[in-house]
Amino acid sequence: MDKTTINRESFRGIFTALLTPMMENGAIDFESLDRLVEHQISQGIQGFYVGGSTGEGFILTSEERQQLLEAVLRRAKGRVSVIAHIGCISTMESIRLAKHAEFHGADAVSAVVPFYYKISMKEIREHYEAIMEAVSLPMLIYHFPGATGVSLSMDFYELMSRHPRCIGVKFTSLNLFEMQQIRARCGEEFLIYNGHDEVYIGGAYTGSDGAIGSTYNMMPGLFVKMYELVSTEETPRMASLQAMQAEANAVIAHMIQYDVIAYEKYVLYLQGVLQTPAVRQPLKQFTSEERRQIEAFYDQSEVLRRYRSSL
Q: Is 225 marked active-site?
């Protein structure tokens, strides 16, 4: 597969960084996962990003990551695009997960940079190149310096953009100047996904082609509408966009006072999507007082109640 045969339109839009529902005993809750996938598709999202940070990918075993991806692919049934996050510190294990994703029909793979060990930009590039040589799927770089401690250079992006299977970057950074510089250095064909939901509009007007976000689990339809407004050929209605971003940010401002993944799961539980709000250690369950506080916020949040499950 080369850049001329990759259908980029299927990778533009709103992609939910899918949560991984858990049972109280820590096992993956596949029944709730099915409901979550259906709920998201019914709200018009373009696709899923599976097994990333929001999906607790680094707390799952490799076998669980494979089971999770297979379950999402079975339920999605080709209705939306599915990007499999296969990133590991080990290149060998990343390749193993990438081959599994290709075999089971994922539309693309993505990998966070190999972190923990201090390696050079050249070694990071060779890590990605080894994965891309092993499979024929498009590759999306996952840039999240706040979590990895790794900042990627503009030369790195430019070199990666020349690879026929490297189609873009999941850009989870608030540095929109850097996003603009990636666009300038890599061209219009290199897809950029905004990764911080609280600056979605800023990312969209800086030149992102879509977004991959965590809070879309709770508010999928809101971000779909924002994307549609930004993408319209008519002059976007800025007042509407600003109001929508304000709605999202009110939720985000409350959420960041707590553990983010546990918070999203608890809201999805309140929305009737998940059977339980369980997270896996070392993430912590909420206390009864924390649950009461979140329930009180949920009860007065029109946007969160708007996206309750109808399934």
A: no
- Is residue 76 a contact partner of residue 257, using CB atoms and an 8 Å limit? no
Name the token pair of 66: 């494979």
Strand pairing category for 166-171 and 139-143? parallel
The alpha carbon torsion through 274, 23, 38, 166 (nearest 10 deg) reads 120
What the chain holds in terms of domains, given with CATH numbers, is 8-236 (3.20.20.70)
Q: How many helices (H) and strands (E) does the chain have?
A: 13, 8
pTM, to two decimals:
0.88
DSSP percent split of the chain into helix, strand, coil, nearest 5? 50, 15, 35
Statement: residue 235 has pLDDT above 80: no
| Mean pLDDT calculated for residue range 141-156 | 93
Question: What residue type is 225 in one-letter code?
Answer: K
- Determine the pLDDT at residue 119: 92
Q: What is the pLDDT of residue 234?
A: 60
Active site annotation includes 170: yes
- Mean pLDDT (whole number) for 260-286: 95
Catalytic: which of 49, 128, 157, 170? 170
DSSP-derived secondary structure for 62-114: HHHHHHHHHHHHHHHTTSSEEEEE---SSHHHHHHHHHHHHHTT-SEEEEEPP
Q: Which residue has the tokens 């708007």?
A: 306
Of 128, 142, 200, 216, catalytic: 142
Tens digit of each residue's pLDDT (9 = 90 or more) over 45-79? 999 999 999 999 999 999 999 999 999 999 999 99
Residue 216, judged by CB atoms within 10 A of its CB (0-12, 13-18, 19+), counts as buried
